[in-house]
Design a protein that fits this description.
The chain is an alpha+beta fold. The chain has a single domain, classed as Cytidine Deaminase, domain 2 (3-Layer(aba) Sandwich). Helices cover 18% and strands 29% of the residues. It contains two helices and seven strands; from the N terminus they run βββββαβαβ. It has helices at residues 87-100, 113-121, and strands at 3-9, 15-21, 25-30, 42-46, 52-57, 104-107, 126-127. A hairpin with a 3-residue loop joins β2 and β3. It is elongated.
Length: 128
């Protein structure tokens, strides 16, 4: 099978794209938007055949009130340590180490130093 991906990211952190499977047609997707009030970041991990193996967006961990509902106090007060998970971290958690090996990571913003270390450790081959 032959796959091709076309991904675009807008200023709000919304990732939109298309995966084209030449034998089965075109599939479009829209990532869920982050609820962070400061930065909206989206991330996609695609394998070597350009199939999406994981997606992620920044926000608070599961079972914690959303940023836009007061769950992340750092969004309002920069002196407080963040509790949010970055989009890159979220997608790496979803994919797991095996699916990340030699994959490409597409992200709306430049990864921070901590995320960069995790990307390298998980075997991501390319960041776009």
């Amino acid at each position: 099978m032959s796959f091709r991906s076309s991904l675009t990211f807008d200023r709000t952190g919304s990732a939109r794209g298309e995966i084209v499977n030449h034998s089965h047609g075109s599939y479009r997707f829209d990532l869920v938007l982050s609820n962070c009030v400061r930065h909206r970041v989206g991330c996609i991990i695609a394998d070597t055949d350009q199939r999406i193996v994981a997606t992620g967006y920044n926000g608070v961990p599961d079972n914690i009130k959303a940023c836009n509902q007061g769950g992340c106090t750092r969004c309002c007060d920069m002196s407080i340590e963040r509790i949010c998970i970055h989009a890159e971290e979220s997608s790496l958690f979803e994919a797991g180490h095996c699916l990340c090996r030699n994959a490409t990571l597409y992200v709306t913003h430049n990864p921070c130093r901590q995320c960069s270390k995790k990307i390298i450790q998980n075997g991501i081959k390319r960041v776009v």
